[in-house]
Design brief:
Elements lengths: L15 E10 L2 E4 L3 E2 L8 E9 L1 H7 L7 E10 L5 E8 L6 E9 L7 E12 L13 E12 L2 H4 L2 E4 L1 H4 L8 E5 L8 H4 E6 L3 H7 L5 H24 L15 H12 L5 H10 L1 H12 L5
Parallel strand pairs: 3-9, 10-12
Antiparallel strand pairs: 1-2, 1-4, 4-7, 5-6, 5-8, 8-9, 11-12
């Protein structure tokens, strides 16, 4: 196990407390779970946390003068989109003890897969009292990480919108199109796949506007079923995918398709499932309907 040691004094554990993140998004409000089911890329995602900082103790333990400035920085990182952004920057007031909340709004369209929130305490303007003190702006005094697995259509690949009456007039009444470039199975799935929603369809427009009525909920279920079905067919019609190794951490086109088969048929070999597709396709269809929750949550 590798342990990073800073070349200067850092904040003692007793001087900081982070009570964990709370999350508010479509269909869920509460403590940040290990997995956020039914993740919706269109829904706003807000997170907040209570923090307690003994500023006086930190300055003393780190050999920093009282004029030193401390800031909390929150970084959000998505392992599938590879995007990392600073989503909060909070200046700690010049008080002995800071007791307050951090609130962040995340850009849902940039997220997917595993979302990691890292909270960092830095000295943005240090006033070192000796050589043991941090002397450079941005020196990290304390940090903690939390993560959540985003589950759902929006977490699987980039999604955008288009008015099909303009962009695809021959298919103006279609609800969406899923496109996956299967030319290179080793390519990053997030770069090879795209789901485009038809913003001209009334119920799709309602979904994009954040409606949570029953019609929109049913649309989400149909969308999840259809995309899952299309991806399963892509996997089963490809000769290489069923024979590839299962790797839950891999993010390539071939790996994502292979892992999808294992998530739906965990006890069966993908090669066996491919044989079923050839000889008894209804067996495949009914399994996908069942696992997709087509007619209920």
């Amino acid at each position: 196990m590798r342990v990073l040691v800073a070349p200067f004094l850092t904040a003692p554990l007793s001087s900081m407390r982070h009570d964990g993140w709370s999350v508010v998004t479509s269909g869920y409000s509460g403590a940040l779970p290990a997995e956020l089911a039914n993740w919706d890329f269109q829904a706003a995602l807000g997170v907040s946390a209570h923090v307690w900082i003994d500023r006086s103790s930190i300055l003393d333990e780190c050999h920093l003068g009282k004029a030193s400035e401390l800031r909390l920085v929150v970084l959000a990182h998505s392992d599938t989109t590879r995007i990392e952004n600073a989503v909060a920057l909070v200046r700690i007031p010049e008080v002995d003890v800071f007791d307050g909340h951090i609130e962040c709004g995340l850009n849902s369209s940039e997220l997917g897969g595993r979302l990691t929130l890292e909270t960092i305490l830095v000295t943005s303007r240090p006033a070192p009292r000796d050589l043991l003190a941090p002397a450079q702006p941005g020196s990290i005094l304390w940090r903690t990480k939390s993560s959540v697995r985003l589950e759902g259509i929006g977490a699987q690949f980039p999604t955008d919108t288009s008015d099909f009456s303009i962009s695809r007039p021959k298919d103006a009444d279609a609800g969406w199109i899923l496109e996956v470039d299967l030319g290179d199975l080793d390519a990053l799935f997030m770069a090879a796949a795209r789901l485009t929603l038809n913003s001209a369809v009334p119920v799709v427009k309602k979904m994009l506007q954040g409606s949570q009525d029953e019609e929109v909920k049913q649309l989400r279920r149909v969308l999840h079923w259809d995309v899952t079905r299309q991806m399963v067919i892509m996997a089963l019609e490809n000769q290489e995918v069923p024979h590839s190794e299962f790797d839950p951490e891999a993010t390539s086109v071939g790996s994502v398709l292979r892992n999808l088969l294992s998530s739906i048929w965990p006890a069966d070999s993908p090669v066996t499932v491919r044989n079923w597709w050839r000889t008894d396709p209804s067996r495949i269809e009914i399994r996908i309907q069942n696992r997709s929750g087509l007619f209920g949550e």
